[in-house]
Specification:
CATH class of the largest domain: Alpha Beta
Number of strands: 19
CATH superfamily of the largest domain: Thiamin diphosphate (ThDP)-binding fold, Pyr/PP domains
Shape: globular
Largest sheet: 6 strands, parallel
Radius of gyration: 24 Å
Strand content: 15-25%
CATH architecture of the largest domain: 3-Layer(aba) Sandwich
Strand order of the largest sheet: 3-2-4-5-7-6
Length: about 550
């Protein structure tokens, strides 16, 4: 869309470049960090930010994918809006992986993108960094994208994007051509304003849901990624206590509540709990796995869904009742309609947890490493969990103990997102340990960002579980194709030498006990570090994780 000018002209103010107006408005909105890479189309944006260096810290990355990943990690670990800055064309395309991850995880990310000069947009001149339809691409990857066409509109565009982000989740983009950034305009900054309160849903739907929940004998609350994004940490727990209902999540919803609560269960318990329920309330869940399979519920159970996205109610899903509303405000509204606290109906909660643990026990060494990870991490530490063998187990065994302390890539499954995302989390949480768990395959995507970590002295701990392969893919190839596999072996650097080459402290841990001790040491040091963990070939976790619950 084309933004309309919402600034007012004040001839008493000295004229500013568009870049200065952009930086001033970001500072006015309370932005403290920007993740970006400078470039020729952004020269005046960089110059504008230099004027506000005492208010906004610019973290210059080594790859554009890191800018949006880090902005996403910044938001999901702090609740603040994450901001990224990239050049047009290939810069935008490189940043796209972070945008789709932010979209999948409902993260509040502002991408400020350069453009080619205004006169060339849509003309196909072959200008530097020109790609066809950049604005349309950003419209597809974001909730909205604004192309600014006048220097006087810059502040209004930035302000409008921030208002939109405060009002709801998902990434937003603003495109600033170089002639707009270098052009001059007059006018004051626009004052920051809070976002509106998201709708809890229709009153009649909420009342009907409350009635069914109170009538239920075996209710279960299931949290999805939308619940975590909405910040339901306290509200879901209160709802579970009121109903005496087990509280469980999908892997995308992990981190929606304190896993140590007596009514809380880790994701693998969902199969049994949903299989025994007579009423299920899905909160912020799409009710589909990454391959489109429905989340299974006991036959005859009443199924309800609270979701801000009506598309989450569409076939093949079928619900007895749907509530189009925000997870947090919707749960609060339900609590207002419910009376008192009921005793838990699940009398064998300890046995359910034991059955989950027994099922996972054969997965060695993944499970011992995942448990060592939890042992070494302080309760408020942030874990950025990658797609790797130990990371897969952490989804099911690592109990989250603090809000904003667990990050994963959501349904996008963006391999390589972890280390760059953890940079944003570490920048946003200077007083909390941040640990990035990676496989060697995923870590290879962003290992150049070790330079960024050292350049800005970011106390991020990177852990690499190394099997010298894309291990998960290799195993699947072998299973499906009689041992034949292609393109799965990796040639890795000596990780300790790699760390030393950046001036970073490096460690090696050979077993779970040594890993526990080493990670504790690295956390106490509060400095950038890399931990190399040679893990070798591991047993197949999916035959255990995907095994259906057969009932009692």
């Amino acid at each position: 869309m084309i933004v309309t000018d919402t600034t007012t002209t004040d001839s008493s103010n000295a004229t500013l470049t568009g870049g200065q107006s952009m930086a001033r408005q970001l500072a006015t909105e309370g932005v403290e960090h920007i993740f970006g890479i400078p470039g020729v189309q952004l020269d005046y944006a960089s110059n504008g930010l230099a004027d506000f260096a005492d208010q906004i810290t610019f973290i210059n990355a080594r790859h554009e994918q890191t800018t949006t990943y880090a902005a996403d990690g910044y938001h999901r670990s702090t609740g603040k809006i994450g901001v990224a800055l990239v050049v047009p064309g290939p810069g935008v395309l490189n940043a796209g992986s972070g945008l789709v991850t932010a979209l999948a995880c409902w993260s509040k990310v502002l991408l400020i993108s350069g453009q080619i000069p205004s006169r060339g947009i849509g003309q196909g001149y072959g200008l530097l960094h020109e790609i066809p339809g950049q604005s349309a691409i950003l419209e597809m990857l974001c909730r909205s994208s604004t192309l600014v066409t006048d220097p006087g509109q810059v502040a209004g565009a930035i302000h409008g994007a921030m208002v939109q982000l405060r009002g709801g989740p998902g990434p937003v983009a603003v495109e600033l051509p170089p002639d707009i950034l270098s052009g001059r305009s007059e006018g004051p900054a626009i004052g920051a304003e809070p976002g509106g309160t998201p709708s809890p849903g229709g009153a009649e739907d909420l009342a009907a849901a409350a009635e069914r929940l109170m009538a239920a004998k075996r209710p279960v609350i299931f949290a999805g990624g939308g619940a975590r994004a909405a910040g339901t940490w306290d509200e879901l727990t209160r709802l579970a206590e009121t109903l005496g209902a087990p509280l469980v999540s999908s892997t995308n919803g992990k981190g929606s509540y304190d896993d140590r609560h007596p009514l809380a269960f880790l994701p693998l318990a969902a199969k049994e709990l949903l299989g025994r329920a007579d009423t299920v309330l899905f909160v912020g869940s799409r009710c589909l796995d990454g391959r489109g399979n429905l989340t299974r519920v006991a036959e005859g159970a009443t199924i309800m869904s609270l979701n801000s996205d009506p598309a989450a109610f569409s076939p093949p899903r079928s619900f007895d009742l749907t509530i189009t509303g925000d997870a947090k405000t919707g749960v609060l509204a339900l609590l207002d309609l419910l009376d008192g606290d009921r005793a838990p109906w699940l009398g064998d909660a300890a046995a359910v947890r034991q059955r989950v643990d027994e099922n996972l026990a054969p997965l060695v060494p993944q499970i011992p490493y995942a448990k060592a990870l939890r042992d070494a991490m302080p309760d408020d530490a942030v874990l950025v969990n990658e797609l790797t063998q130990v990371g897969y187990m952490a989804r099911f065994t690592y109990d989250v103990r603090h809000p904003y302390s667990y990050l994963d890539p959501g349904y996008q499954g963006t391999l390589g997102y972890g280390y760059p995302t953890a940079i944003g989390a570490a920048v946003g949480n200077p007083d909390r340990p941040v640990v990035s768990v990676n496989g060697d395959g995923g870590f290879g995507y962003g290992l150049a960002e070790m330079a960024t970590v050292m350049n800005h002295n970011i106390p991020l701990i990177g852990v690499v579980f190394r099997d010298d392969a894309y291990g998960n893919v290799q195993r699947m190839h072998k299973q499906q194709f009689d041992g034949v596999h292609l393109g799965t072996e990796l040639r890795n650097p000596d990780m300790l030498a790699l760390a030393a080459s950046f001036g970073m402290t490096g460690y090696r841990a050979e077993d779970p006990d040594q890993f526990r001790t080493t990670l504790s040491t690295a956390i106490e040091a509060r400095e950038p570090a890399l931990i190399d963990v040679p893990i070798g070939i591991t047993p197949d976790p999916w035959s255990v994780i995907m095994k259906p619950w057969k009932g009692s």
